[in-house]
Every structure is written in C-alpha cells, then in structure tokens.
Design goal:
This protein is mostly helical and about 350 residues long. It contains 17 helices and two strands.
C-alpha cells in the first residue's frame, strides 16, 4: 500500500521541487528551443519511501493469479510504475534525440527526477511484506540501468547523491534476498542485475564480484535441457517464469561483455540452452505443458527487450521477429538498444 504517511520527502526535496522552473531556466542556457523543454519536465512526484504490498496469488505456490488482488496491486503501484517510465524515457532521449539541446534537456530532466528521489530516501523505508521487497528490487534494477545512461551527463553532486542512493538500495535488496531460506530463483537473477548495474555505475568492484558469483550460480542451475527447475516447479506458470528469468540473465550477459566476461560460456553454454528452450516454449507452449506437466497459462507474455539483445549479440540464432520487435521495458532501464550502445562505449574504454 502506498499511503500519504509513507511519503516522507525531506526539506531539501520540497525546496528543490518548488524551484524546478528556476533551475531549468538557468540550466538550459539562452536557446529558445531549450527553454521550450522546461514545460516538458514536470516536477518529480514525492518520493515513495515505504511499501506495504500484498501478493496477488490465490495459492501458496504462486501458480494461480487472483485477478482482483492483481488489479489492486497494479493500482497501488501505479505511481512507481509511472515514475520509472518517466525516468527511463528521459534517459533514452538523452541518447536518441536529434538535437543536442534536446538531448541535454532530457538528461537534465531524468537526473533531476533521480536526484530528488535520492535526496528524499526513496524506497529506503520499511518494506512491510515480501512483495514490497520484490518490488523495491525491481524498481532499483530499472533505475540503476537508467542511470548507466544518464551518468555521463551528471554533475559531481548529482552523481554522489544518486550513487549513494543506488548503493543503499542494492544493499537493502541483497540483504533480503540473500537471507537464509530465500529461494535462489528468478528473484536472485533480478538482484544480480541490479547489483551489476549499480556496480558499473558507481565503480564498485566488490559489488561487481558479488554479481559475478550470482551469475555463476545461476548458470549452474540451468539443467542439460535448458530448464530452470525452480521455475519449472511453478506449474502452469512455468513458461511465464522462464521468460521472466531470462530478462535479467540476458542483460547480465551484456554487462559481462562490457567487462570482458563471456557468461554465456558458463556451465557448457547454459544461457544458450535456456534461451533455446524458452523460445521453443513461446513458439509452441505445448512444449512446456509437457515439461511442467501442467497446461500453461495463456496467452504467453513474451515480454520485451531480452530477445532483441540476444538476437543482436547472436544473429545466427535467428529468433522470430515477433520476439525481437519490442525493445523497451522499464525494468530493463527503458530501450535496451540504448543500453547496449552505452555498454559498448564502456567496453571500448
């Protein structure tokens, strides 16, 4: 639940929001076109500090979604979803807009939104449920990947505040996920992606080492057929969770390449096996009906971003165009084509 008493912006945050227009007029220089960008950057919403969210499954094993609970969950988290979408879109425009002043304006807007939530301690309050912890982890991952795109535009003060915030979020999610008793399933992979993106954005070698350890563990969990046993155990949603697990793992592969690591080679090319089996399941869901011994929930959500990245890296795989046509997903930091471009620049250094 996101209630008013869970929004706790500090005085600096409130003052900065009140002076957004002044900041922009001074920052954008003398160009009339640049001044026109002021209107496109609304003041960021108040930081969401704490979360209290209910799970939306009708059964304990998480195989049946309760439609009513899911609608309530989506309504409660809409403000988080819209915030992350805005930040990722600005981060993408900072690289894709044609005019330089438009790129700069987009970067300034994205950084303003990140900086204000960093100063307000967003998502660093109490996470009252497991679902709240999951949501914090996912939001942090998308924000960290977006910041990889925005970091080249950040001032030293902005970088210090945002880097500290992302690091604290990463540590909080890691503390929860790595606690005894947590299942090392797709949640572990999403944690690794958030850690890896934060490690690169903040130049944190220790956090990068922990990312590598999780990736190696993930590769060992993929069996000879390309399946993830813990995701296969999700019964009628096994295919759904194989796709969801692939999203962070494929992007982690790109982070690895940017640091000179070929994680696809781990455990006898395990990531390739996982992609192959999952793609076959998307094309022919009956494959997973048999493997999971449960008829899979349909339609299959193929999600966005991961397939485009994989097809670009391994064109010989010849993935169907219906898988690679969508590049944007907020949890992957927005447009993955922009992310790949940024990572390629990093690897060229």
């Amino acid at each position: 639940m996101l209630s008013p008493n869970r929004f706790r912006p500090n005085a600096m945050c409130l003052a900065a929001i009140a002076t957004v227009a002044v900041f922009w007029i001074g920052a954008l220089g003398q160009s009339n076109e640049a001044h026109a960008q002021v209107a496109t950057c609304a003041a960021p919403p108040m930081p969401v500090v704490a979360l209290d969210l209910k799970r939306y499954y009708a059964d304990r094993s998480g195989t049946i979604v309760d439609a009513k609970l899911k609608r309530a969950y989506e309504a409660e988290t809409d403000s988080l979803r819209q915030y992350l979408r805005t930040v990722t879109r600005r981060a993408d425009r900072a690289w894709t807009k044609t005019r330089r002043d438009e790129r700069q304006a987009a970067a300034r807007c994205g950084l303003l939104w990140l900086h204000q939530w960093a100063e307000g301690g967003a998502l660093l309050g109490k996470m009252a449920t497991k679902q709240a912890e999951y949501r914090r982890k996912w939001e942090h991952t998308g924000l960290a990947l977006a910041y990889l795109k925005l970091r080249p535009f950040a001032t030293p003060d902005q970088h210090a505040a945002i880097a500290n915030w992302l690091t604290r979020l990463a540590r909080a999610s890691e503390q929860f996920q790595m606690a005894p008793g947590r299942k090392p399933n797709n949640h572990l992979y999403w944690l690794a992606l958030g850690l890896g993106a934060t490690a690169i954005a903040t130049d944190n070698a220790l956090m990068w080492a922990r990312t590598e350890a999780i990736v190696e563990r993930a590769a060992q969990q993929i069996d000879a057929n390309g399946a993830l046993p813990l995701e296969m155990a999700r019964g009628r949603r096994a295919l759904h969770y194989h796709v969801f697990a692939l999203m962070p793992l494929v992007v982690l592969g790109e982070l690895g390449f940017a640091r000179g690591r070929d994680w696809y080679a781990l455990n006898g090319a395990a990531f390739h096996r996982l992609v192959g089996l999952t793609v076959e399941g998307i094309k022919t869901p009956a494959t997973f009906d048999q493997l999971a011994r449960r008829k899979q929930t349909r339609p299959i959500n193929r999600r966005a971003g991961w397939a485009w990245i994989y097809a670009k890296r391994f064109p010989e795989a010849k993935l169907p165009a219906t898988l690679t046509d969508k590049r944007r997903h907020r949890l992957l930091g927005g447009d993955v084509a922009v992310l790949v471009r940024v990572l390629e620049r990093l690897s060229a250094r």
